[in-house]
Amino acid sequence: MHLPRHFHFVFGLKPQNEPFHLSHYLSLASCLEVNRPERLTLYYHYEPYGRYWELIRERIELVRVDLAPEVSSFRYEDPLIREKYVYAHHADFVRIDQLIAHGGVYADIDTLFVQPIPDALFEHPVVMGLEAPLFCERTQEMRQSVCNALIMARRGAPFLVDLRARMESALDGSWSNHSCQLIHELASEQPAGIHLEEPRSFYRFMWTVDDFALLFEGRERDLAGIYSIHLWSHLWWEWRRRDFSRFHAGKINESRIRRLDTTYNLLARPFLPAVNRRWWPFGR
Fold it and tell me: Which terminus, N or C, of the chain has the lesser number of Cβ atoms within 10 Å?
């Protein structure tokens, strides 16, 4: 039994104070063009707005969802951590619930699809990709991790059902103890329930200074075996944050993507919206 070609995205789990970003539009557009899904559903609590949202919203299915009660009731010790993490923690729960209910492929909205996901991967009950070990805020040690930014799963997959049952007790306020690191633990216990892809398939560019430089400033020519790239955008989105990259969300715009031949720009360029002279201030 193959899992369905129903792609799922989650966005808008916090109030929308800025227009829907071009990078998010490109995530959805690349999924539609590269994977040709039977359905593409975006789950939201607060609906996005703006030019790029209007360009894509009629091409996708919208479903409003409630926030995860486990996250809403969790007492974060540090209010700053809550402010930084809570939207992502809601999304961790929503994605698993929707995949259990419907099956298909979940992807974070800072994913850019590069090549079609191979048919062979749709034959597994669950597919996720390995990432580099993560620093555990609770143990102060590096721990193995399976990234949940892209998940392929059959409807009602037992691995996801077991994962969901453990997530609330594993929620400790850290970034991913209840998700990525818990997934690795469960995969060690139930190896037959999940297929783990090597990082190149979904995470060729890891969350490192060197990989961000290659992605946003350099040019990677070897794209063999890469089906999608994950941008890890929470690590560089704000212009004030410089510990991983000087790149920031303001540098992702149509003009730069069309003009500069960087890895990301070349991969994203085919999915840009058609030039509309009312919006395009740079001429030819």
Answer: C
pLDDT tens digits for range 104-119:
999 999 999 999 999 9
Residue 51 CB coordination number (10 Å): 13
Query: Which fold would CATH assign to domain 6-205?
Result: Spore Coat Polysaccharide Biosynthesis Protein SpsA; Chain A (3.90.550)
Task: Tell me the CA distances in angstroms from 67 to 4, 35, 121, 148, 190, one per residue in order.
Answer: 25, 28, 30, 18, 29
Map out the domains of the chain as residue ranges: 6-205
- For 189-240, how does the pLDDT look when each residue is reduced to its tens digit (9 = 90+)? 999 999 999 999 999 999 999 999 999 999 999 999 999 999 999 999 999 9
The CA distance from 174 to 116, in Å, is 33
**C-alpha to C-alpha distance for 15 and 48, rounded to whole angstroms:** 9
pTM recorded for the entire structure: 0.92
> Residue 262: how many CB atoms within 10 A of its CB?
20
Task: Give the tokens for residue 32.
Answer: 């539609």
Q: What angle do CA 45, 46, 52 make, to 5 degrees?
A: 120
Strands 111-113 and 104-107: unpaired
Tell me the per-residue pLDDT of 37-84, one tens digit each, with 9 for 90 and over.
999 999 999 999 999 999 999 999 999 999 999 999 998 887 777 777
